[in-house]
Amino acid sequence: MANSIYRASVLQSQLLFRPSLSNKHSVPKKSNLLCIASSQLNPIRSEVSFCIGTHLIPHPNKVDRGGEDAFFVSNINGGVIAVADGVSGWAERNVDPSLFSKELMANASSLVGDLEQVNYDPRILIRKAHAATSSTGSATAIVAMLERNGTMKVASVGDCGLRVIRKGQIIFSTTPQEHYFECPYQLSSELIGQTYLDAVVSSVELVEGDIIVMGSDGLFDNVFDGEIVSTVARHSDVVEAAKALANLASNHSMDSRFESPYSLEARSKGFDVPFWKKILGMKLTGGKLDDITVIVGQVVTSPAAASLNQVQMTGKMEEAGSGDTRGLL
């Protein structure tokens, strides 16, 4: 969850949250799962593809509306995965921050199969989906597309992230883009926002067995890369791996004593406890309560992809705070 709406005239931000152990929450067992564009296609034969698991846990104060993250997965070519994170600052203007991210991902999901328009280019997909989004608001976004020959193309605007793990080592990481602390680059309904031209574009050659971990900043603000690697290593099932990562991020986010990636960054940017507390040896610690979206993909050799074209999911859960899906893409 990005907190600040980018405005050219704004020069500073503020640390909005310090967690407390009392912020534990329960998640209702029922919610909605939105599946779109599930038309039956002939199986796509490919050299490699993604096997995908997902898990989503909303911010405890946003459970009733499913949070402000959205994502989709698709079996087009070798597979497509994407996450968008609505900027929460729009709530101060009485705008639902989830509307923009959900519409952005719905548009991307419907456009991804149009080879003439998108040409299997994640930056073009971001451009087309952004242009088609009419909701007021803004969101960070990341898209990864796997080609059949193992080349994965990634385009990212803001602080959603992606890691590639090979044989227990991270071999590729995206880098967050931000104007200042708590104000990432963001696709917006306003002209002042960023566009596809601001996206960081990367290309990674993947091999069978590689693990891809994609998520909103709710994951990467609360879980260190080393924890991501060790957690994935303990789970051979991608759904279980995604669930374990999301639960770990959620637990860290509610631990006021945990030295999280978020608290370390905050201190490095000058946000800390008052001086008198520093004299007593105290410092700013704790995770960051947020929507948490995790997609775990394993690269597999597959003679035929699944017949489900694509699944688009917003911050909605089936049970126990999760939106789980697994399939050979």
UniProtKB/TrEMBL annotation:
PROSITE patterns: PPM_2. Keywords: Hydrolase, Magnesium, Manganese, Metal-binding, Protein phosphatase. The keyword Protease does not apply. Residues 54-299 form the PPM-type phosphatase domain. Its EC number is 3.1.3.16. It catalyses: O-phospho-L-seryl-[protein] + H2O = L-seryl-[protein] + phosphate; O-phospho-L-threonyl-[protein] + H2O = L-threonyl-[protein] + phosphate. The keyword Nucleotidyltransferase does not apply. Its cofactor is Mn(2+); Mg(2+). Coiled coil: none annotated. It is an enzyme of class 3 (hydrolase). Belongs to the PP2C family. PANTHER family: PROTEIN PHOSPHATASE 2C, PROTEIN PHOSPHATASE 2C 26-RELATED. This is Protein phosphatase. It comes from Hibiscus sabdariffa (roselle).
